[in-house]
Amino acid sequence: MSAKKVTKIAVLTSGGDAPGMNAAIRAVVRTSVHHGIDVFGVARGYNGMIEDDIFQMYSKSVGNIIQRGGTILKTARSAAFFEPEGRKIAYENLKKRGINGIVVIGGDGSFKGAQKFSHEFDIPCIGIPGTIDKDIAGSDFTIGFDTAVNTAVEAIDKIRDTADAHDRLFVVEVMGRDAGYIALHSGIATGAENILIPESKTDMEAMIASLTEKEKRKKLVNLIVVAEGEEFGGGTQVGNFLKEKLPNADIRVCILGHIQRGGSPSCLDRLIASRMGYHAVECLLNGTHNVMVGIVDNKIKYTPLDKAIKAKQKISDEWLKIVKILAS
Prior knowledge:
The protein has eleven helices and eleven strands. The chain has helices at 21-34, 45-50, 84-95, 108-121, 145-166, 181-189, 204-216, 235-245, 267-286, 305-310, 317-326; strands at residues 8-13, 38-42, 54-57, 101-106, 125-129, 169-174, 194-196, 222-227, 251-255, 291-296, 299-304.
């Protein structure tokens, strides 16, 4: 990668939307404007780059958006960008505007595209982790995770009220793809009796035995939080298994789904998005290229994109031990 001076920056959001993306866009745009750098928005992720849906942004372009969920730039997953022909078209669209630096707000798939594009066309890229799943190594938080967890907690608290009123066992499925962080955090925060996550193998027979024992001592209200990517197959499959094994129990399954993606971002998500967006522009201007901007121990950390792509955020043994003890 050459050390060419970055004079024009493009910013895009890619992959699944996450609350706080707008705060990151705002920070990128206003930091660029502060430095006298032209900044361009790309609509609908890499698709917009290929289809030439690129437009200049100004400070006023990002007014009154920090509190909004979703992304004003829209987002999409682009199969065309993973083909050489698509990337070549995208490069030509950037080149004719003189854009020579890119900020990508998204997850690991978005970073893979950025890394490949950067190496092919010598355009520096900076990644900002925007995903509710918190599955990217190199940052204690990803943009959107805190809001998604709080949304899940609020919903599960309400479900517990109904469970208590009817003496029911509720299986609640939360999002997270193949990462269990939303399930782990929301399950602990709501006092779930069991938390099923992809990172830890669940002894289903032991869980049945525990629920049977609780039923005998008249503990009829139980919450089981399941990550959608859990090995048993998610909330519906877990619910069906429990209904078969516990025919006398009143069991309900609730899948929270995409409500976890939406809504106004939390204070934490607004703060980390703003901080990451600022540092993404500073990286491009000071020659730190092809890294992901993360926050570890409340300090900015730069992780090379190739390492951010390959590594996954791991759940510590301490958390797994806490879950086991507190759910007993």
